[in-house]
Amino acid sequence: MRRHGLGWTKTTLLAALVTCVATPAFAATAERRPFGTLADGTAVEAVTLKGANGVSATIISFGATLQALKAPDRDGKIADVELGYDDLQSYVDRPNFWGASVGRYANRIAGGRFILDGKTIQLAQNDKGNSLHGGTKGFDKRPWRVVSVTSGPTARVTFALTSAAGDQGYPGTLAVTASYALDDAGNLTIDYDATSDAPTIVNLTNHAIFNLAGEGAPQGALQHRLTIPAARYTPVNAQLIPTGVLKPVAGSVFDFTHGRVLQDGIRDGTDPQIVFGRGYDHNFVLDAGRTKEPKLAARLEDPASGRVLEVLTTEPGVQLYTGNFLDGTLIGKSGHLYRMGDGIALEPQLFPDTPNQPVFGSARVDPANPYHHRMVFRLSTTR
């Protein structure tokens, strides 16, 4: 009996050793929990992805919304660096696109109309006669289905949504997925995919608004330093619709090619573009254009905390929005009042109003030509 017991112990130890060697260390985790219930009884869930370096992301199924993004500063102190709400009802009652997956077409379409295959398509108008972020009930205002949740070297959650033909005026039934994946290096990768049964247009992005000092930090985010690898941007008219010009940034407050502090240009009333946007609310033409693999679109740094956010994308543009319409009337997380400059949005995208401006390229999606956009929020620190 003694020998048998000793043999069993050796065998068990050997098996355990083999298992340990053969199985990779699963540091990143995905945790699923309820986040509330909509008026029609639909349950909304939250999935929190956690990496080994202290970065975590919470995504809710309402709007496939990035509800929180937490990251350490240079001293290891964790803070939530994204504006938003603590509860579901606030997202329903006071929508503001914070962290949401926006579509079918992110940003603005002039007059809410465009021509596709010789036919004029009229969309829902929800922004001074224009269509903004998909219309009156865009993808940000709908419950998505949770398709899968997995832990592993990369923790991941995938959501799905079906948009019927005629939804907000858009042609074609569109099947959409949004997949969030967090690794142990602090990379939050978002994949947007869509297929349509008829020709249509698609432009999907995430509308997170960041303050790397921590959401609600009294100093706001205008002391952040921003770099954008773009020698040109798309000026807008008074309705924030691009004029069609690709204007050089050189010599203007729109030159972020070598980095600049946001507050240095945001109140320059001598620039009519700043007046139109009430600050920065403009699309930048990325030097790399549209690419197969994500490339750098923007680098945002908070010198005080040392936190750095890099935004990467496969799309040709990135919209810079400095929270110009936040006026202190919206109460966000932890009871914080959000004001102008309290957060910065960096939205990778096709250019605004592309369906009406052929010089910008094409937003067309066909049954044989599905849509894909990969973007990355990469968090790190600097001394």
Summarize, please.
By secondary structure, this protein is mostly beta strands. Helices cover 9% and strands 39% of the residues.
Give structural attributes:
9% helix, 383 residues, nine-stranded antiparallel beta sheet
Structural topology:
Layout: H1 2-22, E1 29-37, E2 43-50, E3 56-60, E4 65-72, E5 78-80, H2 88-93, E6 101-102, E7 108-109, E8 113-116, E9 119-122, E10 131-132, E11 145-150, E12 154-163, E13 174-183, E14 187-196, E15 200-201, E16 205-206, E17 209-210, E18 225-227, E19 232-234, E20 247-248, E21 260-261, H3 272-277, E22 281-285, E23 295-301, E24 307-313, E25 317-321, E26 327-331, E27 337-339, E28 344-349, E29 364-365, E30 371-381
Antiparallel strand pairs: 1-2, 2-3, 3-4, 4-5, 6-16, 7-10, 8-9, 11-12, 12-13, 13-14, 14-30, 15-29, 17-28, 18-21, 18-23, 19-20, 19-22, 22-25, 23-24, 24-30, 25-28, 26-27
Structure in words:
The chain is mainly beta. The chain contains 3 helices and 30 strands. It has helices at residues 2-22, 88-93, 272-277; strands spanning 29-37, 43-50, 56-60, 65-72, 78-80, 101-102, 108-109, 113-116, 119-122, 131-132, 145-150, 154-163, 174-183, 187-196, 200-201, 205-206, 209-210, 225-227, 232-234, 247-248, 260-261, 281-285, 295-301, 307-313, 317-321, 327-331, 337-339, 344-349, 364-365, 371-381. A 9-stranded antiparallel sheet has the order 11-12-13-14-30-24-23-18-21, with no helix packed on it. The protein has a 6-stranded antiparallel sheet with strand order 17-28-25-22-19-20, with no helix packed on it. It has a 5-stranded antiparallel sheet with strand order 1-2-3-4-5, with no helix packed on it.
